[in-house]
Every structure is written in structure tokens, then in C-alpha cells.
Amino acid sequence: MRILIADDHRVVRTGLRMLLESYPDFEVVGEASNGLEALQMTRRLRPDLVVLDISMPNGSGLSYLRELSPLSRVLVLTMHDDPAYVRQVIQAGGSGYVLKEAADVELLSAIQHVMSGQTYIYPTLAARLVEEKSNRAGASVPLSPRELEVLRLVALGHTNQEIAARLGVGVRTVETYKSRICEKLGVYTRSEMVRYALENKLT
């Protein structure tokens, strides 16, 4: 397996090269010190895998990831233990995410997963992503189609009278819908309803 290392710290690159080349099936074909070098060397050398830091000079590694991912599998090796970075990496085409602090024990497993076509995320970060997703799912209370329509019209700036006329119902019925919406969503003001609708792309 031909591997390119991209990290702006020489000592990190040297350590990674020694670690990777301790496995007989791995060959480090190049080292890049920034994102642009990583992209140029990937185009020239066509490695099977790029081990990429996302915090480098000359544009972050993350900004080059979208260009690298069609050319090679990319495994991000970073000190950022924030799930937000994981989401950005996966959305940009990255195949894996490992923390530098655990590289000595996690890197081989991560490479094996990535090269077999799987996505690898460092276990503690994967658990946090699952927890966040679960919390979001638990927090979102589904509205009925009519409640969603009322919320959308509120967000668009319509008055209760205008909403009633559009839906063919009484003003008091609209007020009841709005009360139900506020109760389900845990909001209390019109501005909070509008913000919720905007954040969930209901307008």
C-alpha cells in the first residue's frame, strides 16, 4: 500500500513514517508539509492513501480535502476532538478520522477499515456523534401537516386573520394551532417560532 503523509511538523511526519513502514505491506511514497503540497504530490504520485492533518499552513488540510478525496482515500489524523470537525471531514469526502494522541494504537485499524471501503471514526468521537444524533431526534417533536403549514405561514409574516383566510378556518382555530405548536416545540414567542422555522428550512 502506497501512502502519502501530509503534516506541517517534520517530527510528526518522521514518526508516522517509522510507524507505517514498520508494517511490511506499507510504503510511504512522499511527505507533504502543507495542503497544496499534498494535492500536488497526490496528483503526481497517486498514492492509495493520504494521511492528512487538517491544521496546516497554506490553506487548511480541510480546504484541500474535497480535491484530494476523488484522487485517493484520505484518512485525517488530527488533534481536534470535536465532532463538528468529523462531520466536515466526512462531508468533504474523507474516509476516516483518527486523533493524533491515539495514532500508535488506532492508525493500523483505521487504515484497514478505510482501505476495505469502510468509514473509520475514532471510537470516542463516534460515540459522541451517535449521542448528538439521538439527542436531536429525541428533541424534535413532529408537527401535524396542518401545524407545519400554520408555522410556515407565521414565519412568512402572516397575521392570524390572514392565516385563517388562507386555511378556511376561524381565527380562534389558528390561535389553537399556534398554542399547540408552541407547546410541542417548547417555544413561547412569535420570534422563536420564526427562528425554529428558519433553522429547519420550513419557509
How would you characterize the overall build of this protein?
The protein contains ten helices and six strands; from the N terminus they run βαβαβαβαβαβααααα. By secondary structure, it is α/β, with parallel strands linked by helices. It has a six-stranded parallel sheet with strand order 2-1-3-4-5-6, with helices on both faces. Helix 4 links the parallel strand 4 and strand 5. Helix 7 (145-155) packs across helix 10 (190-199). It starts with a strand and ends with a helix. 29% of the residues are buried. The mean pLDDT is 86.
Quick recap of the structure?
Helix content is 56%, strand content 13%. With 203 residues, the chain is an alpha/beta fold. The protein has a six-stranded parallel beta sheet with strand order 2-1-3-4-5-6, with helices on both faces.
Ordered list of secondary-structure elements with their pairings:
Elements: E1 2-6, H1 10-20, E2 27-32, H2 35-45, E3 49-52, H3 61-68, E4 73-78, H4 83-91, E5 96-99, H5 103-115, E6 120-121, H6 123-139, H7 145-155, H8 160-167, H9 171-185, H10 190-199
Parallel strand pairs: 1-2, 1-3, 3-4, 4-5, 5-6
